[in-house]
Specification:
heterodimer, A: alpha/beta, 10 strands, globular, B: mainly alpha, two-stranded antiparallel sheet, 4 strands
Chain lengths: 250, 294
């Protein structure tokens, strides 16, 4: 059976530092996978590798059965992978609406064809629908740089959705949010599941994932130390030690 | 007459602005200075007079120059800028483009000689005109002014309203995000170079039509002034390039009128020093946006 995402023995080295060491796991269609681990475990590196941001050292990545291991970054959008960043990267000097419009899949191939494509009504309507889903429609004409932190996060998600992805990678979307914003974001992400084939959610905070994710993969020092249902994974001694050990020491 | 010098200043300023817009576009997407740009402008004059010599009407010569200059821009992008991604090799790439520009000067001089070449336009085009409120306007001046205005408005519409312009702004804002959202950054860079160079080439032809000659040594002077104008207007800001260009052109025209003579040439530098002391980010520059991008 084809998996939404399939990693086989993925390794990433930066010089002498091994950031990912033989990570293998699959994400099934319809699944929301939580990727957890302490700081420096390699979670963000994994997202950067899967989204084509870093070339991987060895191993392979399949998306919906297609090998994307060596695809250049701007192809990943077309391959149905979208991501958000841990540190928000919006186009701050463009309007909220334009941020979404940029992300629509390009069907035009000729170098100057895109000159002739004005802001078509249908595209704008679609963008507004995505903005309203992320509760940003009132802010459509503001500059993205003026958004509050939580809004900027939601715009990043709306923009990622505009690429019409099958697989969405969310890198610590709740980072820096207060409790109320975090709860709203959980509800938003839960609503997204019907639109997407699969979601990989990177999170430092395990409580955020409990009840939201179907499965957890735990990384520690670039190695995968657990893979399974949240309630079981979080009781595995190695996970407790890697994850909670630090907290208890503190 | 003061009125005449104002018109002359505005025409000169709009040439500066066209060149500065090209520097600004490229600087916006790549954060790099393209020093070959001013030589594409210079070559535009020669390419233009060649089209005219072949019997092309002016409108066709303009299109021809835009196409040839645009292709020169694509070559510069390929030779000097393609291999440096992000902010890598900012200085190396710019030096490489400087070398390309110098080679272009030599090639032009090899082919056309180092003396200025006259453009064969009907004399009537340069003398016929009318007077308006004490100003003598030739049809040529009116045409150049109107056409540069159309080009500037066209560029503004292109950048603000089309999908291509949105991509250019997205790459200028954050190339990594744009790439991940499916924007082909390499292609956007090529498109930007094409547009910037086509504008410079057209400016070169317009200047040649205005003065009657194409010469191979104008690139450096105009190019440096256009760079200064970019500094005055704010790095990477298109409005800044237009307004800065017009202000400098006007200052030079009026400086000439009021007897500064050759000193009018240093107006731009004095203006730049003054503006940068008061507003380091330039007239339209936004220091915080620049910091975010850096």
């Amino acid at each position: 059976m084809k998996m939404a995402l399939s990693l086989t023995n993925v390794c990433k080295r930066f010089g002498g530092v091994t950031a990912l060491d033989g990570v293998s796991f699959d994400v099934a269609h319809g699944e929301l996978l939580g990727l957890v681990g302490p700081n420096g475990a390699g979670k963000s590196v994994l997202v950067n590798v899967v989204s084509g941001f870093y070339p991987l050292t060895t191993g392979s990545i399949l998306v919906d059965g297609r090998d994307v291991t060596y695809a250049p970054p701007h192809h990943f959008g077309r391959l149905g992978i979208a991501r958000t960043f841990q540190n928000i990267r919006l186009f701050k000097r463009m309007s909220v609406l334009e941020n979404v419009l940029v992300a629509f899949p390009r069907h035009v191939r000729s170098p100057f064809g895109s000159i002739l494509r004005w802001n078509r009504r249908a595209e704008i309507d679609h963008a507004l629908a995505l903005l309203s889903q992320m509760r940003l429609v009132e802010k459509a004409d503001q500059s993205a740089g003026s958004l509050a932190y939580g809004e900027a996060r939601r715009l990043e998600i709306a923009r990622a959705l505009a690429t019409e992805p099958k697989l969405l990678l969310l890198d610590e979307p709740a980072a820096g949010m207060n409790d109320r914003e975090t709860d709203e974001l959980r509800a938003d992400i839960s609503d997204l599941r019907s639109m997407l084939d699969a979601i990989v959610l990177i999170e430092h905070n395990v409580e955020f994932l409990r009840g939201l994710s179907d499965r957890l993969v735990v990384l520690d020092y670039g190695r995968m130390i657990a893979d399974g249902v949240p309630d079981i994974v979080l009781k595995i001694p190695a996970v407790v030690e890697a994850y909670l050990g630090a907290a208890e020491d503190a | 007459m003061v009125g005449d010098q104002i018109i002359n200043g505005i025409i000169l300023g709009s040439m500066y602005a066209l060149i500065a817009l090209g520097y600004t576009l490229v600087f916006g997407v790549l954060d790099k200075l393209n020093f070959a740009h001013s030589e594409v402008f210079m070559a535009g004059g020669y390419v233009g007079l060649s089209w005219i010599a072949l019997g092309a009407p002016v409108w066709l010569a303009i299109i021809g120059v835009a196409a040839v200059a645009g292709i020169m821009g694509l070559a510069v992008e390929l030779i000097s800028f393609r291999k440096f991604k992000g902010s890598d090799g900012q200085i190396t790439a710019s030096l490489s483009s400087l070398a390309v520009g110098i080679v272009m000067i030599d090639l032009v001089q090899k082919y056309w000689g180092s003396e200025p070449i006259a453009i064969s336009l009907p004399v009537a085009l340069r003398t016929a005109g009318f007077t308006l409120g004490g100003m003598t306007l030739t049809w040529l001046k009116v045409g150049i002014l109107g056409f540069t205005l159309i080009l500037m408005i066209g560029l503004q519409v292109l950048v603000q309203k089309t999908a291509l312009g949105r991509n250019i702004r997205a790459v200028a804002d954050n190339p990594a995000s744009a790439s991940l959202l499916g924007v082909d950054v390499k292609r956007v860079n090529q498109q930007t170079f094409f547009i910037a160079s086509a504008l410079a080439g057209i400016a070169g032809l317009l200047l040649t039509m205005r003065t009657g000659f194409a010469s191979s040594d104008i690139g450096l002077g105009f190019g440096l002034k256009a760079l200064a104008i970019m500094g005055i207007g704010g790095m990477g800001d298109l409005r800044g390039a237009v307004i800065g260009g017009l202000v400098v052109g006007l200052c030079e025209g009026l400086g000439f009128q009021f007897g500064f003579g050759r000193l009018a040439d240093i107006m731009v530098w004095v203006l730049m020093i003054f503006v940068l002391v008061v507003r380091p980010a330039g007239l339209f520059g936004n220091a915080t946006a620049r910091d975010v991008r850096a």
